[in-house]
Amino acid sequence: MASSLPGRLDRSAPTSTEDRRLCSTTEPAGNKTGSQETSLPRHGSHVPSSEVLEAIENVILDVFTSLAKKKAPVLTLANRSDWRNIEFKESVGLQMIPCCTTKKIRSDCSKSALKFALMLKILSMIYKMVQSNTYATKRDIYYTDTVLFGSQSVVDNIVDDISCMLKIPRRSLHILSTTKGSLAGNLSYTEEDGTKVNCTCSATAVTVPSNVQGIKNLISHAKFMLIVEKDATFQRLLDDDFCNKLTPCIMITGRGVPDLNTRLLVRKLWDTFQIPIFTLMDADPHGIEIMCIYKYGSVSMSFEAHHLTVPSIKWLGLLPSDLERLNICKDVLIPFTKQDQNKLASIQKRPYVACQPMWKRELEIMAASQMKAEIQVLTSLSSDYLSRVYLPNKLQFGGWI
Question: Which residues are tagged catalytic?
Answer without folding.
Answer: 143
